[in-house]
Specification:
This protein is of the alpha+beta class and 175 residues long. The chain has 2 helices and 5 strands, in the order αβββββα. Strand 3 and strand 4 form a beta hairpin.
């Protein structure tokens, strides 16, 4: 069982590394593709800042303001975009936009790609080790149950002789 579990751990490490590397490569390729279609422009705020709830219930509120910019050249856009805290009406801010000039998120950074790759690799490793550990635990329970049944059947034959008690259906002097 130890050898099987060790082999499972080794395979889990190899699979975790391979999946993490694949996630890194895919994430890097996707980030490069997204970056080709994202651009930064200088925008001017046209309103005071306000707070908007984050994307997820547990996330912090985001400071936003209406801003205007021209992208592609001479094509004006006005949208509500995230801005730094303390931004006032008329201040300039940097905004990520897509090819059509609409506000967009920044392309994934190196840290995001690394975290995703590590999470996928670690998740695969942990999942395989846990599955292997669960199989070993189940197998050991089966072995323990068989061993206990075998011991009990052997003990049922030995115990009356050893303790001197009579077995069911045995009379005095029936040795």
């Amino acid at each position: 069982m130890r050898a099987a579990f060790a082999l499972t751990c080794l395979l889990a490490a190899v699979a975790g590394f391979a999946l993490g590397r694949a996630a890194w490569t895919d994430g890097h390729r996707t980030a490069e593709n997204v970056a080709r279609h994202r651009h930064t422009v200088t925008a001017t705020t046209v309103s005071e800042t306000s707070y908007r709830a984050g994307d997820q219930p547990s996330s912090r509120p985001v400071t936003v303001a209406a801003a205007t910019w021209n992208y592609p050249t001479q094509r004006p856009h006005t949208e509500t975009v995230p801005v730094p805290v303390g931004t006032r009406n008329g201040d300039t801010v940097r905004v990520w936009v897509d090819d059509t000039g609409r506000a967009a998120t920044a392309p994934p950074g190196r840290a995001d790609i690394v975290l995703d790759a590590v999470a996928i690799g670690t998740g695969a490793l942990a999942g395989m080790v846990l599955a292997g550990g669960a199989l070993v635990a189940v197998r050991l329970r089966i072995v323990d149950a068989r061993s206990a049944r075998s011991w009990e059947s052997e003990w049922a034959g030995v115990e009356p002789l050893w303790s001197g008690r009579l077995r069911p259906g045995q009379g005095a002097g029936d040795d």
